[in-house]
């Protein structure tokens, strides 16, 4: 009995991550009640993002320019490449402001189960970049999951012949974390990497 | 460092119910990775919904026609009006297919705390509709919350002089519900309204 425009909207919203049929209906209704304040601006924002955004040919980041503004930024350190699984991880590191080098976005992790092989990831370009004379260190910032660590290990082997320095993020107790709730692996790593004060 | 189009998209997505900053970023990235398959269709769906949808002058439903298609449907029973708080509740009842009358959407509940008075809700029109000769029964289907029940009680008093029959949804054990997990109020109501088999 509801309008086809509403059904179509709900159907598309339900495809977004974290939204099921029920929350898609709730979001649709929220939008419908605020056509001028929210629905039209959001439609415009999506349309303009869809037009403007492309993938950086160098690092795989998404931006309105290609190469992206991180790759072309004159003050970013060209000697450091931070390898991340996904653009979301790049954003997370950028939010900390701690890293002033460049990135390389893999686009996922190796997975025999899901049939993701090295050639499905953005690894070839990384090996080529690591071979450039100005690059001195590749920081592997894949997730600390089995898939992320497997992928990091594979990349490390691929880069071994290039002579570039390869590092990875430190394991340890999260800031604000309680030891009692921490898994054994993290605690073991934190103990082994303990620092003298 | 990310594009203003992306920031704008995330900012608007974070205003949707159930989405915080983190999930808004996740949704934005999901959309950015699928511009042609998802982001552009969703933008179009929102724009066309924003253009097409209006609020029914009779019942307060949202639809592409005003009056809405439920109010103008020749086979819907004009003698029954089901009063709901919100369009989402109307959709929920429509999904069951059990009700073939018409609706009246209040647009909320009375709330002294939030300063919602009877004149802020769609109650005046309901009283006028209930006075029409063809209307025989008003079913109060507000939520079984304190606010919903207060609102139902207020409407019942407002309709007392009109001579129309007023009913409300039954309380009881939800289908599939376990007694052990049920609150005392529901269990008491279910016991009092027990039916002879």
Describe the structure.
The structure is a homodimer of 197-residue chains. With 197 residues, the first copy, chain A, is of the alpha/beta class. Chain A contains eight helices and six strands, in the order H-H-H-E-E-H-E-H-E-H-E-H-E-H. The first copy, chain A, has a domain at 76-168: Dna Topoisomerase Vi A Subunit, Chain: A, domain 2. Chain A has a four-stranded parallel β-sheet. Chain A has a two-stranded antiparallel sheet with strand order 1-2. Chain A starts with a helix and ends in a 5-residue tail after the last helix. Chains A and B meet through helix 1, helix 2, helix 3, strand 2 and helix 5 of A and helix 1, helix 2, helix 3, strand 2 and helix 5 of B.
């Amino acid at each position: 009995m509801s309008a086809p425009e509403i059904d179509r909207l709900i159907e598309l919203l339900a495809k977004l991550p974290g939204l099921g049929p029920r929350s898609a209906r709730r979001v649709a209704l929220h939008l419908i009640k605020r056509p001028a304040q929210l629905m039209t601006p959001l439609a415009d924002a999506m349309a303009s993002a869809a037009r403007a955004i492309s993938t950086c040919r160098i690092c795989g980041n998404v931006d309105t320019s290609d190469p992206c503004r991180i790759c072309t930024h004159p003050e970013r350190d060209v000697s450091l490449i931070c390898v991340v699984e996904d653009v979301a991880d790049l954003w997370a590191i950028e939010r900390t402001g701690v890293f002033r080098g460049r990135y390389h976005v893999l686009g996922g992790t190796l997975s025999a189960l899901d049939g993701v092989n090295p050639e499905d990831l953005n690894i070839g370009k990384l090996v080529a970049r690591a071979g450039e004379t100005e690059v001195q260190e590749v920081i592997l910032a894949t997730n600390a999951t089995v898939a992320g660590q497997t992928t990091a290990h594979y990349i490390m082997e691929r880069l071994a012949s290039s002579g570039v320095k390869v590092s990875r993020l430190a394991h340890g107790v999260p800031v604000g974390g309680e030891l009692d709730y921490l898994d054994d692996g993290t605690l073991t790593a934190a103990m082994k990497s303990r620092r003298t004060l």
